[in-house]
């Protein structure tokens, strides 16, 4: 862990200290948007904007829900800091629009953003790369609405009797549910379909949840989350003050290094770039299982990336500057 922290601090000294803030030019901080995660994006974006301005960067708010994206050219922006969570900002569409406009942006590109946003495609890529992830099934809206409905009892049995139901392309645990009965599974699938046309049904992992932040090719110290909720849901992430965040996570140095390398492999396997976060759970056999990768993680006061950065010796201001440097590549 010490070697990893030193690597981050060395990158901070060289990449940030030696760069004049003028090199960034006029920066549009893209936040808000129209996704189901708009509220979280507004909080994240405000924190990022304030930090960039405090660091002397010429940064300005830009909400795509309120302004046409073409205004970035009209207003003379040189680059964009993407802090839009969910669809329209994290799924490759905004990245593609910025590329067409010729505006450099932070983080992962079009392909990686699209892959990471889709939990099903993420698991398929990881499975191809022989990276560990829990068994799963996928149901589509057409299958659920067909005359012959799915056999929920058989599906649940194939996943060891307990499962997590997730919309394929939502974040912040929106639309998720834990189920252990066929009728619960059917109800949860229908609820998830309100957010997406595809639903991931994943075998439940009975163990602690971890997350690893990736920052410019370095895995930061892992965080272990603990909550009295049934799982680490939206309220546990953003509203409930009883959620516990352990950083250091309590792993020994060897295991910490292993989980960091696994997260880095998972992130890069999905064509991740710049910064992001990989979520994992540890099963009863001590094995780490990949859940998902986030290419535009939260940056609110309760978010995980700033906590990991702090443990690595980076202030919030240094963190956002590190992220901004990814737009220079």
UniProtKB/TrEMBL annotation:
UniProt keyword Nucleotide-binding present: yes
Location(s) in or outside the cell: Cytoplasm
Catalytic activity as recorded in UniProt: 2 D-alanine + ATP = D-alanyl-D-alanine + ADP + phosphate + H(+)
Keyword Membrane among record annotations: no
Enzyme Commission number(s) of this protein: 6.3.2.4
Active site as annotated: 37, 172, 303
Positions with a binding annotation for Mg(2+) 1: 279, 292
Pfam families per record: Dala_Dala_lig_C, Dala_Dala_lig_N
Positions bound to Mg(2+) 2: 292, 294
UniProtKB keywords: ATP-binding, Cell shape, Cell wall biogenesis/degradation, Cytoplasm, Ligase, Magnesium, Manganese, Metal-binding, Nucleotide-binding, Peptidoglycan synthesis
One of the GO biological process terms: regulation of cell shape
Family: Belongs to the D-alanine--D-alanine ligase family.
Stated role: Cell wall formation.
Name of the protein in its database record: D-alanine--D-alanine ligase
Gene symbol of the encoding locus: ddl
